[in-house]
Amino acid sequence: MSTTVAHLLDLLDRHLQSIWTGDIETYRQTTAADVSFFEWYISPQRIDGLDFHLRELAVHAQALAGVAGGRIEHEVLQPRVQFYGDTAILTYTLLIRSIHPGGVSHKTHHETRVFHDFGAGGAPAWQLVHCHKSPVATADSLDVLRR
C-alpha cells in the first residue's frame, strides 16, 4: 500500500469518526466548503455545502450525549482508492455499528467519496469534495425505499 493510499484511508477514518463524535473541527478540516452529497436516506436531491452537515454533526452529538454507554463505530469494507491527478476516488461498503443499552444494531451502505488535494509545495491538503451513498438491499433499506 502506498503512503498516499494509507494517508487517505487514515483521513477517511478520522473524517468518519468526526461524524460519530460530533467533532466539528476535524470535519471542517477534512471537508471542502462546497462539498456535495447524495444521501438517499436523507433527501432525494443533492445536498450542497458544508453547513447542512455541520448541523447534522451537532444532532449526532446531542443524540448520543444522553445515552450512557452509547457509541457508534464503523468499518470500511473492501476499500478501493483510484487517483486522477490531484483527485482521489474512494469506494467501499460502510458498516455502521450502534452500541446502546438495548443492544447493538448494524447498518450498511455503499459509499463513493471523492477527495481533492488542495495542497501546494508538496504539502498535501486532502479534503472531501463529493460523497454518494447507495443502499445495500436489506430489509431495513428496502423499508426506507418503500416509504
Structure report:
This protein has a single domain (3-146), classed as Nuclear Transport Factor 2, Chain: A (Roll), CATH 3.10.450. 34% of the residues lie in helices and 44% in strands. The chain has four helices and six strands; from the N terminus they run ααββαββββα. Strands 2-1-6-5-4-3 form a six-stranded mixed beta sheet. Strand 5 and strand 6 form a beta hairpin. Helix 1 (3-21) runs antiparallel to helix 2 (24-30) and helix 1 (3-21) packs across helix 3. It is globular.
Short description:
This protein is an alpha+beta fold and 147 residues long. It is built from 4 helices and 6 strands.
The biggest beta sheet, please?
6 strands, mixed
Tell me, rounded to a whole number, the average pLDDT. Answer: 89
Tell me the radius of gyration: 16 Å
Count of discrete structural domains: 1
Order of helices and strands: HHEEHEEEEH
The CATH class is Alpha Beta
> Could you give the distance between the termini?
42 Å
What percent strand? 35-45%
